[in-house]
Design brief:
With 184 residues, the protein is of the alpha/beta class. The protein has one domain (10-180): Nucleoside phosphorylase domain (Rossmann fold, 3-Layer(aba) Sandwich). The chain has helices spanning 37-51, 134-143, 162-180, and strands at residues 10-14, 29-32, 55-64, 72-80, 102-104, 110-114, 129-131, 147-156. Strands 3-7-6-4-8 form a five-stranded mixed barrel. It is globular and about 50 Å long. The chain starts with 9 loop residues before the first strand and ends with a helix.
Length: 184
């Protein structure tokens, strides 16, 4: 998974500092968005204006919806799992009056559905992973023509044990991302 990014042209975007402590990303521009799509959106828009990056790298934890997944993964398909306007004839995950249901980036990777809830049971929308920020970040980067790259560490299995598993796994993911992607 060795991917090379230039710290001079890349903005790291992470929800929480305990997911990637600032010391593990020394030399990189990094912003912490807080949890959820709105916090992620506001923070990324402000950071794009300030840093003017050529690319955005999102790193964070995610719940796996497949039991065979663990470790660090590239994500290239993004869906919005809590957009539900089916009563008006739109597909689950589709923003009304927009044609795209998912956002895709280059390369091979997993799918991730984003929503403003911590998932502890399988959601109705089918994806590999669940998180709370990636779809919003991917959409903003697409609208602003900024390359978007996403890496998620499987912190839990999006089940009843997810809260406990997440808190025990989050530091492992930070070390793995720092070593494999930031080359630290």
């Amino acid at each position: 998974m060795m991917t090379r990014f230039n710290p001079q042209t890349t903005l790291l975007v992470v929800a929480l500092e305990n997911e990637l402590p600032r010391a593990m990303a020394a030399g990189w521009d990094i912003v912490y968005t807080g949890v959820g799509k709105i916090n992620a959106s506001v923070t990324l828009c402000d950071a794009i204006a300030k840093y003017q990056p050529r690319q955005v790298v999102n790193y964070g934890s995610a719940g796996a919806l497949r039991p065979d997944l663990s470790g660090l993964h590239v994500v290239t398909r993004f869906l919005q799992r809590d957009m539900d306007v089916r009563a008006l004839g739109f597909a689950l995950g589709q923003t009304p009056f927009e044609k795209d249901i998912e956002i895709t980036t280059d390369g091979e990777g997993l799918s991730c559905s984003t929503g403003d809830q911590f998932v502890s049971a399988p959601p109705e929308i089918v994806t590999d992973l669940v998180d709370m920020e990636a779809y919003a970040l991917a959409k903003i980067c697409r609208q602003k023509a900024i390359d978007f790259h996403c890496f998620k560490f499987i912190s839990d299995n999006a089940d009843g044990d997810a809260p406990k598993d997440w808190s025990q796994q989050v530091a492992i993911g930070a070390r793995l991302f720092s070593a494999e992607i930031l080359n630290k």
